[in-house]
Amino acid sequence: ISRCQPAPEGYSPTLKWQQQQVANFSTVRQSLNKHRSHWRSQHLDSNVTMPKSEDEEGWKKFCLGERVYSEVDALSDNESLGIDYIKVGFPPLLSIVSRMNQATVTSVLEYLISWFGEKKFTPELGRWLYALLACLEKPLLPEAHSLIRQLARRCSEVRVLEENKNEEQISALNLIICLVSRYFDQRDLADEPS
Predict the structure, then answer these.
(1) Which residue in 103, 155, 164, 184 has its CB near the most CB atoms, within 10 A?
(2) pLDDT tens digit sequence for 106-154
(3) 152 contact partners, CB below 8 Å, separation of at least 6
């Protein structure tokens, strides 16, 4: 079974940092579970139409926005100041993720991981991956287990290739690897503290 690639020199997270992230994540999960029924009962804004579980392209556009999805980097000059969620993607709001059952969480995770397999890591992608991991129930279903291992390995590959060592980016990738390996008990994928 292939392991994660080690962090670039000087970018391996400390054990203390990893433990802190796991503790924070655990708190987020508890809070999410506690308030799930409340958020599920809230009305979604009229502009939010969640795709059907099996609509892969729909979910990619919904989460990442048409701009990332279509790989259009530039903002056009005449854009209004309001946020156009169709263009920039919907953030993983509690009112949205609370409505997703385990099958949908796993499917969307799969769609985004397959997207990430060919594309670069973006903050939108990072936010959604974190939120979906927070919604994954333990014990993991076999397909979820294999998906999150694939995700951690992909994060480690991207981290090695990160040329300008963008701290924020490496930190986000470290976080996902840390949660998969230490919260979801995939210890063989963990970063060994430097």
Answers:
(1) 155
(2) 999 999 999 999 898 999 999 999 999 999 999 998 999 999 999 999 9
(3) 4, 176, 177, 180, 181, 186, 189
Condensed to tens digits (0 to 9), the pLDDT of residues 155-183 reads: 999 999 877 777 889 999 999 999 999 99
In the 8-state DSSP scheme, what is residue 49? -
> 3-class SS at 14?
coil
Tokens 């090695």 sit at which residue?
160
Nearest in space to 102 (alpha carbons), one of 139, 151, 155: 139
Rounded to whole angstroms, the Cα distance separating 102 from 130 reads 15
Give the CA angle between residues 151, 152, 158 to the nearest 5°. Answer: 90
